[in-house]
Amino acid sequence: MMAATGSSQDAMRTAMTPWLINTAHALYGHLANPIHAALRIRCVELKNAAGSKESIEARINSINDFLHGDRKTLREQTFSDLTLLIEGLSNAPELDEKSRVNVAKLVKVSLSELAYLNEELAFKNRYYWENLPQLTVELDS
Description:
single chain; mainly alpha; 0% strand; 67% helix
């Protein structure tokens, strides 16, 4: 509509930036939620596990660093911050190899979709956005 009424690219970008950030944030949440849920369960399992206390603490700390590494609120996050958070999902600790490959593939596709959205202010693949893929996460034993 803005283009049809003669708005400049700059005006369209300014008007659409909050939507773009909210879309990236929602996508991050969609991708991160199953990973975060699995890692919270893993923390409980590790706390109840037998073994080297130092090794278990290191693993728990690694999970907590991953879960709580970014403390910015949505208002403080930029589009770039959110793409970095999505990219970082590939480095989640404690994932088994199958899940790590799954996450990496989904992150790659998601970042490609977001990059296009950012450049064109339009969806590249509507099917992707209308049917966001589900992520199954398994943790190494």
